[in-house]
Amino acid sequence: MTENHKQAGKKFEEKTIRTEPIFQGRVISLQVDHVTLPNGETATREVVKHPGAVAVIALLDGKLLVVEQYRKPLEKSQVEIPAGKLDPGEAPLSAAGRELEEETGYRSEELQHVCSYYTSPGFADELIHIYFTDKLVKGQEQLDEDEFLDVEAITLDQAKQYIAEGRISDAKTITAVYAWQQYLQTGRIQP
């Protein structure tokens, strides 16, 4: 990072005066930060803290492995790439391998990092790490006790149809579909 980029990052910095914890859950916590703005005024910011997550673009015989599960916040089922949250102290690469096997029953010793991005930086600190593999071997599915899903291997045309139908509508899976399309065209995986 250049010195100009460092200075630009500080230009709009909001300094935290105090933090009020509001909720501590199993997956997220919510806090209200009281901050001093760059102009000296004060404001509050509602912040969702998240441990981070991983997702895997996994190709099996040229098809994308996806899982369909019910998403309560949306009140409907969604088709998504395998994903899950990081456990405390867990490295993203390890978590990606764990989530892939737990959700799909496949594992891979060759996971390639594609990208990492913040899912909703306006109110949350969740950072998701996306990995890629086309080298899968049969493992063992091990769903969490409160996890119910179906695994499917879909073609690129099916994935695009699912996007058009709204069955795929989350950022990580849409990113995965377009990274996969580029991979098919160029032989390289990129975000």
Question: Can you walk me through this structure?
Answer:
- Helix content is 25%, strand content 39%.
- With 191 residues, the protein is an alpha+beta fold.
- It folds into two domains: 3-49, no CATH class; 53-186, Nucleoside Triphosphate Pyrophosphohydrolase, CATH 3.90.79.
- Strands 4, 5, 6, 7, 9, 10 and 12 form a seven-stranded mixed sheet that branches. Strands 1-2-3 form a three-stranded antiparallel sheet, with no helix packed on it. The protein has a two-stranded antiparallel ribbon with strand order 8-11.
- It is globular and about 60 Å long.
- The model has no long low-confidence stretch (mean pLDDT 92).
Features:
single chain, 191 residues, alpha+beta, Nucleoside Triphosphate Pyrophosphohydrolase, 2 domains, seven-stranded mixed beta sheet, three-stranded antiparallel beta sheet, 25% helix
Short description:
This protein is an alpha+beta fold and 191 residues long.
Explain the layout of strands and helices:
Blueprint: H1 3-11, E1 15-24, E2 29-36, E3 42-49, E4 53-60, E5 63-71, E6 76-80, E7 83-85, H2 92-104, E8 106-107, E9 112-118, E10 127-133, E11 137-138, E12 149-154, H3 156-165, H4 171-186
Helix pairs in contact: 3-4
